[in-house]
């Protein structure tokens, strides 16, 4: 298994944090907090709720840190905690289905409002079309796509985060890629 330098550094921070080193704990939080917020945002759909879910997650993460026997598992373990705390947050407010429907509507409206901004920010029309196509995916498909491509989690790590089977994750990613490809090809033909 090839590991990136950042992953090795994260593992070192986990080990040092397990030994109670306050600087390592601080670096661990500083390094991971933005990534965990970004993931929680994809689930709950609003910044304040994402911050609340991640704060609840940090309590669980820091309390359970010494229980991690393999520091390489920290990534998937932390994302799993955020995943669960984010869905707990949704369930405590209203039914999950209603939130996912609203989240989807917000993404579609946001895609329309931000079309000009995205084009200027990204410079590439194809990249803009891809971002719009991704926003039109089901929220749970966006989550899997984000974990795989943005967070660089392996299929096995995504299994640990989402609770889905490896085969269902692979088939979902394949289906998403085909759908995005089809959408982009259709748009370029128009």
How is this fold's topology laid out?
Elements: H1 5-18, H2 22-44, H3 47-64, H4 74-93, H5 96-113, H6 115-122, H7 125-135, H8 139-150, H9 155-162, H10 166-189
Helix pairs in contact: 1-2, 2-3, 2-4, 3-4, 4-9, 6-7, 7-10
What's the quick description here?
The protein is mainly alpha-helical and 190 residues long. The protein has 10 helices and no strands.
Folded structure, characterized:
By secondary structure, the protein is mainly alpha-helical. It has 2 domains: 1-93, Rna Polymerase Sigma Factor, Chain: A, CATH 1.10.1740; 95-190, Winged helix-like DNA-binding domain superfamily/Winged helix DNA-binding domain (Arc Repressor Mutant, subunit A, Orthogonal Bundle), CATH 1.10.10. The chain has helices at residues 5-18, 22-44, 47-64, 74-93, 96-113, 115-122, 125-135, 139-150, 155-162, 166-189. Helix 3 (47-64) packs across helix 4 (74-93) and helix 7 (125-135) packs across helix 10 (166-189). The chain is globular and about 60 Å long.
| Class from helix and strand fractions | mainly alpha
Q: Termini distance?
A: 43 Å
Give the helix level as a range of percent: over 70%
**How is the biggest beta sheet arranged?**
none
In the residues, how many domains can be counted?
2
The CATH top-level class label of the largest domain: Mainly Alpha
Number of distinct helices: 10
CATH topology of the largest domain: Arc Repressor Mutant, subunit A
Number of strands: 0
Beta-strand share of residues: under 5%
Radius of gyration: 18 Å
Architecture of the largest domain in CATH?
Orthogonal Bundle
What's the rounded overall pLDDT mean?
Answer: 81
């Amino acid at each position: 298994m090839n590991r990136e330098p950042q992953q090795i550094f994260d593992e070192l921070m986990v080990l040092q944090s397990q030994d109670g080193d306050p600087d390592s704990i601080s670096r661990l939080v500083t390094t991971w907090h933005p990534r965990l917020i970004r993931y929680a945002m994809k689930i709950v759909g609003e910044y304040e709720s994402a911050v609340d879910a991640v704060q609840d997650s940090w309590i669980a993460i820091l309390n359970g840190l010494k229980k991690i026997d393999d520091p390489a598992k920290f990534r998937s373990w932390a994302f799993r905690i955020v995943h669960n705390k984010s869905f707990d947050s949704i369930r405590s407010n209203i039914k999950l289905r209603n939130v996912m429907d609203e989240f989807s509507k917000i993404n579609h409206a946001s895609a329309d409002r931000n079309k000009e901004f995205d084009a200027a920010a990204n410079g590439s029309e194809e990249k803009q079309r891809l971002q719009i196509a991704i926003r039109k995916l089901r929220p749970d498909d966006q989550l899997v796509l984000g974990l795989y491509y943005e967070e660089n989690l392996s299929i096995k790590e995504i299994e640990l985060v989402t609770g889905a089977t490896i085969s269902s994750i692979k088939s979902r990613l394949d289906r998403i890629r085909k759908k995005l490809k089809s959408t982009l090809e259709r748009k370029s033909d128009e």
